[in-house]
Amino acid sequence: MNLSIVEDSHSLFLNHKFQNVSKNGKMLDFDDTYIPEEIDELGLLKNKIINYLNNGEYERDIEKVVKLAMKHIVTTYKEVNNPAVVLDIDETALSNAQLHLENNFNVTYEKLIEWRYSQKAVAIKPVLELYKICKSMGIKVFFVTGRKKVDKDITISNLKKEGFDNFDGIFFRDPELSVGESKVKARKEIVGMGYTIIANIGDQLSDLLGGYSLKGFKLPNPLYYVSFNKK
Ligand SMILES: [Mg+2]
């Protein structure tokens, strides 16, 4: 068989999809009336994500969002009483990307716990910088996480190890509530303590929806999705 594969122009980049398979210029024996456009198969998607994480694009996207958040914080904090900022932890303050890469994106619960206990999650630099600037400006910073209280010590230890060392409070998941509801409840508590949450930063919409902050900022997360209603 001497097949030549004619790739369509936009998929040359992926070196994968093909429009027509021809033999000596003639179509092969299949119906080409409608050939569905292929979506990326899993290996390609994984490669795209790996590239996104490793080629600097991921960090640049984070930087862009953090810059917007910082601009908002600087212009707002003097206008409110007791300004505070809320940060999510995973894929916001700390990166677990290495865990997902090491496990070829198949992270079991056991692997996740082992990773958390090893405290190998690293600071997401632009967020750490924002954290330090906020602290130096006298703005309180609270962490609101979907992690459960059983992981309290290792979580605090990992945060401190990575430079988030003098935060003003941390709220873990309420086991009775969904991730989203639990985070809304935590922000409500912070507001109840007399603070104005001027910015809330997270990598999931479930970090941001539900109010009790002046503005939310959404970071990218190519690794996983956490719905508001996740129990
Ligand atoms: Mg997160």
Termini separation: 55 Å
Q: What is the highest CATH level, the class of the largest domain?
A: Alpha Beta
CATH architecture of the largest domain: 3-Layer(aba) Sandwich
What is the element string, with H for helices and E for strands? EEEHHEEHHEHEHEHEHE
Can you tell me the residue ranges where pLDDT is under 50 for at least 5 consecutive residues?
Answer: 1-19
Question: Helical proportion?
Answer: 25-40%
Basic shape:
globular
Round the Cα radius of gyration to an integer and report it: 23 Å
Largest sheet, in brief, is: 5 strands, parallel
Provide a count of the helices: 8
Strand order of the largest sheet: 8-7-4-9-10
Q: How would you state the average pLDDT, rounded?
A: 89
| Ligand roster | magnesium ion
User: What is the β-strand count?
Assistant: 10
How many domains make up the coordinates? 2
If you consult CATH, what is the topology of the largest domain?
Rossmann fold
What is the beta-strand fraction? 15-25%
What is the SS-derived class?
Answer: alpha/beta
Q: Find the CATH superfamily of the largest domain.
A: HAD superfamily/HAD-like
Structure, described:
There is one protein chain. By secondary structure, this protein is an alpha/beta fold. It folds into 2 domains: 1-39, no CATH class; 42-218, HAD superfamily/HAD-like (Rossmann fold, 3-Layer(aba) Sandwich), CATH 3.40.50. The protein has helices at 42-54, 57-76, 97-102, 109-118, 125-136, 152-161, 179-192, 205-208, and strands at 4-6, 20-23, 26-27, 83-87, 94-95, 122-123, 140-144, 169-171, 196-202, 216-218. The strands form 3 sheets. A 5-stranded parallel beta sheet has the order 8-7-4-9-10, sandwiched between helices. Helix 8 links the parallel strand 9 (196-202) and strand 10. Helix 2 (57-76) packs parallel to helix 5 (125-136). It is globular and about 75 Å long. Magnesium ion is lined by residues 88, 90-92, 202-204. Magnesium ion (MG) is lined by residues 88, 90-92, 202-204.
